[in-house]
Amino acid sequence: QVQLVESGGGLVQAGDSLRLSCTASGFTFSSRAMGWFRQAPGKEREFVAAISWIGGNTIYDNSVKGRFTISRDNAKKTLYLQMNSLKPEDTAVYYCAAAAAQYGSVRYSSSAYDYWGQGTQVTVSS
Q1: DSSP letters along 20-71, please?
Q2: Mind listing the pLDDT tens digit for each residue in 45-100?
Q3: What is the distance of C-alpha 72 from the center of its chain?
Q4: What is the dihedral of CA 100, 106, 110, 113, to 10 degrees?
Q5: What is the 3-state composition of the chain as percent helix, strand, coil, each rounded to the nearest 5?
């Protein structure tokens, strides 16, 4: 059974930091690119960051570039998102996702991902 379980969300003030984690099971984590997406109330889900299956290539949305860092530990089957200098506009439910293709490239589009976690809430107060 495939599972992606996010953790680490919470309520913080603007300028604070959080680190999200996503623990995977039920599939070969080390062979898939992974991504973080987020969805704010009343908005569509949007891409945040992605990392290649071996971790050597990362991409970010412009809104988080320089503030967020995606990383992975294949031995622990865990994906991370370090979020610094948080802003109120970062408030959203954050989801991790596993790419459908094995050993594929990093992708921006949510359609390239077929396994999703249940999400973790991040709320940034001003």
Answers
A1: EEEEEESS-GGGEEEEEEEE-TTS--EEEEEE-TTSS-EEE-TTTTTTEEEE
A2: 999 999 999 988 999 999 999 999 999 999 999 999 999 999 999 999 999 999 99
A3: 10
A4: 20
A5: 5, 55, 40
Distance CA 60, CA 58 (A): 7
| Contact between 34 and 22 (Cβ < 8 Å) | yes
Q: Write out the two tokens for 76.
A: 């622990």
Give 78's strand partners: 23, 73
Residues 50/38, Cβ–Cβ less than 8 Å: no
Phi, psi of 25 (to 5 degrees): -155, 160
Q: What's the CA gap between 51 and 61, in Å, rounded?
A: 12
Mapped onto helix, strand or coil, the DSSP state of residue 18 is strand
Q: How confident is the model at residue 104 (pLDDT cuts 50, 70, 90)?
A: confident
What is residue 7's three-state secondary structure? strand
Closest CA to 74 of 31, 14, 17, 38: 31
What residues have CB less than 8 Å from 112, skipping those under 6 apart? Answer: 99, 100, 101, 104
Cβ–Cβ under 8 Å, residues 64 and 82: no
